[in-house]
UniProtKB/TrEMBL annotation:
Keywords per UniProt: Lyase, Metal-binding, Zinc
Protein function: Catalyzes the reversible hydration of carbon dioxide to form bicarbonate.
Cofactor binding description: Binds 1 zinc ion per subunit.
Organism (species): Patulibacter medicamentivorans
One Gene Ontology molecular-function label: zinc ion binding
Catalysed transformations (reactions): hydrogencarbonate + H(+) = CO2 + H2O
EC class: lyase
Name the record gives this protein: carbonic anhydrase
Segments traversing the membrane: none
Length: 173
């Protein structure tokens, strides 16, 4: 729960959308032109288009808290590869991630105390960025549902410097 004051933003966003059609260019295919899927944290500071030089239509961007490869990310990747022609998977974790600031039990207990329920899902918080990224890479490599699991690469984006650092796992060597 947060007590921060908040002015509703949706009206402003919707007003902006009203002018969008005037500068909109439709694309004729849902298949990403560069055959790439990026799985990254939802962090509002990450500009994946700027970072990787992507344009609209180039890649699937699959985002969640932490950029963790969960079962639902595997669902999206399986559809991305099998129905929409992507091959390579880039995973992006980042420094200063919110997932580093609490533990799974913290959040589970907070939810239990406030609502009377523990969630069926795992919060997937982590203490070690590189290790969590390696775990996500291994989940891709181990998935029986993906056509090109071996084409996964993992990176940590440093929000302080804008640099991208590749993380490798022994299975790739
Ligand atoms: Zn994050």
């Amino acid at each position: 729960m947060t007590d921060e004051p908040h002015d509703p933003q949706a009206p402003d966003l919707i007003r902006h959308a009203e002018g969008f059609a005037d500068r909109y260019t439709p694309y004729d295919t849902p298949r990403p032109r560069r055959h790439v899927a990026v799985v990254s944290c939802m962090d509002a500071r990450l500009d994946l288009f700027g970072l990787f030089g992507l344009d609209i239509g180039d890649a699937h961007l699959i985002r969640n808290a932490g950029g963790v490869v969960t079962d639902d990310v595997i669902r999206s990747l399986a559809i991305s590869q099998r129905k929409l022609g992507t091959r390579e998977v880039l995973l992006v974790h980042h420094t200063q991630c919110g997932q580093l600031t609490y533990t799974d039990d913290d959040l589970r207990n907070e939810l239990l105390l406030e609502t009377g329920y523990k969630p069926a899902w795992t919060p997937e918080s982590f203490k070690d960025l590189d290790e969590d990224l390696r775990q996500s890479m291994r989940r891709v490599l181990a998935s029986p549902f993906l056509l090109y699991p071996e084409l996964v690469r993992g990176f940590v984006f440093e929000v302080e410097s804008g640099r991208l650092r590749e993380i490798r796992i022994p299975e790739q060597d």
